[in-house]
Amino acid sequence: MATSQPNLAQPAAAQPATAVSRAPAWYHPIFSPRHGVYVMLFVSFLTGVASAQQCTWATTLTFICALAGFQVEHPLTLQIKQHRGWKPRFLVWGSLYFGIALGIVVYLYLQTPLLLWLYWGAIAAVVIDAISVFYRQQKSFASAKRSPWESRY
To answer: Is the dihedral of CA 7, 11, 14, 18 positive or negative?
Structure first.
């Protein structure tokens, strides 16, 4: 059986490319697979812009902040669902999304301090979601174990 060896007589561009990625696993971005939320976020953004009949930098930054804040939730949820250790990929991308959202929040807060109540509501939603995922994971883990009183027949 012959193995495929690169032909050194041909330039590298003429040789067939392999589909193997050599980048570390943490390098690949994590995006939430729930595309319905993206549609709802974009439609609400467009509706708000249309009703205000103008789009300002603050409006666009608020949209980017909401998108980044939504993206924080997915790596956090995946990290909580892990049974063992911390995954650098989840930490890197969750921290990056959180940093983007936090930077925009601070900028917008300095522009309009009244928005602080909205930000506290978003933080509370993320904390409640994390607690929900944690207890759901604990419940599913505990229900997988058999009770000592449970019959095996």
So the answer is: positive
**Is 39 among the domain residues?**
yes
CA distances in angstroms from 23 to 20, 32, 132, listed in the order given = 9, 21, 33
- What is the extent of the structural domain holding 53? 33-140
Query: Cβ(81)–Cβ(133) under 8 Å?
Result: yes
In this prediction the pTM is: 0.64
Distance between CA atoms of 5 and 81, rounded to whole angstroms?
42
Is residue 3 a part of any domain in this protein? no
pLDDT tens-digit readout, 52-65: 888 888 889 989 98
The pLDDT tens digits for 23-37 are 666 677 777 887 888
Structurally, the chain folds into a number of domains equal to 1
SS3 145: coil
Q: Is residue 92 part of a domain?
A: yes
Instruction: For residue 149, tell me if it sits in a domain.
Output: no
Cα-based angle 30, 33, 39 (whole degrees, multiple of 5): 115
